[in-house]
Amino acid sequence: MSGWKRAVSEVRADVCAARDRDPAAQGVSTVEILSSWAGVQALLAHRAAHALLRAGVPVAPRVIAYVTRVVTGVEIHPAAVIGREFFIDHGAGVVIGETAVVGDRVTLYQGVTLGGTGFQRGKRHPTLGDDVTVGSGAKLLGPIAIGDGAKVGANTVVVEDVPPGATVVGNPGHLVRVEGRRVEGPDADWIHLPDPIAEAIKSLSGRLADVERRLAELDGNGAAGEGQAEISPRTGRSPAGG
Length: 242
Ligand SMILES: CC(C)(COP(=O)(O)OP(=O)(O)OC[C@H]1O[C@@H](n2cnc3c(N)ncnc32)[C@H](O)[C@@H]1OP(=O)(O)O)[C@@H](O)C(=O)NCCC(=O)NCCS
What we know:
Elements: H1 3-21, H2 30-36, H3 38-54, H4 60-72, E1 75-76, E2 81-82, E3 87-88, E4 95-96, E5 101-102, E6 107-108, E7 113-115, E8 127-128, E9 133-134, E10 139-141, E11 145-146, E12 151-152, E13 157-158, E14 166-169, E15 174-178, E16 181-182, H5 196-218
Parallel strand pairs: 1-4, 2-5, 3-6, 4-7, 5-8, 6-9, 7-10, 8-11, 9-12, 10-13, 12-14
Antiparallel strand pairs: 14-15, 15-16
This protein binds coenzyme A.
């Protein structure tokens, strides 16, 4: 296939990816998507910058990446390798580092970072397999591998490899599903962690009730809580308005 035909087919695949994966893009024309979907614009600009970099053209790849960042809020290093049908939803705040590798049909939401952990050289950014989804605000750091079909929850921080078909959430990211099945084991529940402050208040409240009951008995006032006003939620208009 000639270079021109390949470029047209890639653009078509990238626009189709936006239409398939963004419910807001259903029924929207190709011209409208190209002119107003920041994630699609950033991707197409990256494809041009990457091709120029590989052809050995100086300066232009970085200038394209810089202008794209200013216009779309998405920063993709020209050397990053991006697969087919990539889609960045909403665009803003996405950063993809120099040695990152992204497979086919990957979806990133806004605020995702595929970054390094410090000042290392060489391969220092993540490698994402095919069909990976990364939720908004997630940070994937270091030369880690994210397996095919994996899902990374919004705001998750991932610093270790993720197996194929797994879902990771939290900071640091923990496995909560593999191939759709809940992860079993004593240390597997990283979502429903106890709330130590709520536990402390509950314990104090119990002890206070006990003290009040004993005081009432000493005073000869009868049953606990007798003569005390019951605390109940106020009804009526919210003082906050609305
Ligand atoms: C992680 C995600 C991809 C769902 O993956 P999934 O494999 O279908 O997982 P589930 O929905 O079954 O969730 C698995 C568990 O993780 C929890 N969970 C899901 N996302 C989470 C998150 N971001 N942070 C913490 N916990 C999360 C769920 O509550 C569920 O808990 P449970 O075990 O008590 O049932 C999805 O929740 C997510 O974060 N998507 C990103 C969407 C986004 O960024 N949208 C922005 C639009 S502008």
